């Protein structure tokens, strides 16, 4: 019992701080709705087109705006009151979900309209991501940042368990429109939590001053800090080739395993169970380094390789648990190191560029993996993702301890921390 209490205190320590607790609970409800919408959009497009390429284009519509707007959205986050910015962005997201519900309730919607509204959601993600993630740091003490980041990831992955299952149930029993409508209503929770947060208790950084070249300044800053640059490169490769579950998993479940749409939502939920376990383990981690990021990338690649070779649903279920745990382990480590290593006045831009590399690389990798899965099968798409992730992790580990070559006059080179 004593050990259990100690585990609880260390794992959930940042929830003792009121602002973060409110934010955590509000986001938890809203993120369940978000995952319902993402899965429902995937099932809707699959039912309308039965095409892997169409699913890849949906991923491009959902995350393309992050690639286009990411650095500027991060700069706005650095300049703005993040709480007010999030109130605006979340309100727009609510309207977008309700519009999807109206479209679905109207009958058989045109695919282009689903893509258009998915793009609106992508714009809100571009602005929400850096503001929300950098605000987490402002709500807790500095020594609680790794725990808060890990718990925030735990909340996100927990919503991936409930959201897809609830979305699949609603689609099967009440239709696509009902799932979108529930997501729209769920935004009330996060809006209420943002209103209740005490601004005076936030550990705010000084807003970035207006001036020319601030986006380029953020890029130069990342390039000059190897403990940011190396994880960023790994994130870009893994995001482009491996984090395409919404594209490859439905095809794998239906075509390779001979299942149905319910098989996809089942596998997605099992994947998320593993992700929840991985994020809880990550919450106990006190130190995050480039080595941590590299090792979790290698584990992620091995797990994806194993899933591509599974012969049936039973073995796919077991492997999906490990795939979920390793994928969220990589995501948590790469996010935590960026938040810890970046200076406060640059954090919004750094997180936006990371999101651009992670989510924004999906419009490049999504159609590519979708086409490959359509032509050669979903297993081939997963093998490409596994190979890219393994290579990225191996490169990151090889970079540990190597000094970065600075330009003349910049002083001694900075090694990548092990």
Structure description:
- This protein is mainly alpha-helical and 418 residues long.
- The protein has one domain: MFS general substrate transporter like domains (Growth Hormone, Chain: A, Up-down Bundle).
- It has 16 helices and no strands.
- About 2% of the residues have low confidence.
CATH topology: Growth Hormone, Chain: A
Give the second-level CATH assignment, the architecture.
Answer: Up-down Bundle
Succession of helices and strands: HHHHHHHHHHHHHHHH
Overall shape: globular
Please give the number of β-strands.
Answer: 0
* Main sheet overview: none
Uncertain segments of ≥5 residues (pLDDT<50)?
Answer: 405-414
Given helix and strand content, the structural type is mainly alpha
Give the overall average pLDDT. 82
Which CATH class? Mainly Alpha
Radius of gyration: 20 Å
Total helical segments: 16
Q: Could you say how many structural domains there are in total?
A: 1
Distance from first to last alpha carbon: 35 Å
Helix percent reads over 70%
Short structural summary:
Helices cover 79% and strands 0% of the residues. It has helices at 2-11, 18-49, 52-79, 82-105, 111-138, 145-173, 176-196, 214-224, 226-241, 245-256, 261-283, 290-308, 313-341, 347-358, 362-376, 378-399.
